[in-house]
Amino acid sequence: MRYLLFILFILYLQPPGINKQAICLSAEEARLLTLINEYRQDQGLPQISYSSRLTKVAQAHVRDLENNYEFSSNNRCNPHSWSENGEWSSCCYTNDHKQAECMWNKPKEISGYDGAGFEIAYFASSGAKARAGLDGWIRSPAHLPLIINSGQWEQVTWNAIGVGVYGKYAVVWFGREPDPSDYSICR
């Protein structure tokens, strides 16, 4: 009983806002996180701190996409959409960005992250890989600005990043609010 009270006391003393939720990364997810931060450093930008909350959202989304989304040019809903098959509100994110709030609010809805989230997504029919995903985003005028804080993102400071790679999809979530977290490689 004393031991339990001691543990509870120690947990009580922990500062608020520190996320204790441990989320493990696959080797490919850890590689993606490293590659993005290395690329940013090569551009003279600071690394972005890992967020377990944004990673929880990223990992949920790549699984939702893999299991419930049909990647097709005929699909009016783009890969920032969420299906009805999860513990979240579904939405069809269209290319006119009229449903952008659906994406922005997912981190708060799914993981309790304190701010809005901004996602980039990658699809490869042969299976998503970290290097191919980053290379694709670097070549994309719509995605590179989020990674390097340019264009409309120039005045934004990313303080948190989450990653998910599963099946044919890779996604990265960026956030302004700090969410200091540790991660481990999944076994």
From TrEMBL:
<dbReference type="InterPro" id="IPR035940">
    <property type="entry name" value="CAP_sf"/>
</dbReference>
<protein>
    <submittedName>
        <fullName>CAP domain-containing protein</fullName>
    </submittedName>
</protein>
<feature type="domain" description="SCP">
    <location>
        <begin position="33"/>
        <end position="158"/>
    </location>
</feature>
<dbReference type="InterPro" id="IPR014044">
    <property type="entry name" value="CAP_dom"/>
</dbReference>
<dbReference type="Pfam" id="PF00188">
    <property type="entry name" value="CAP"/>
</dbReference>
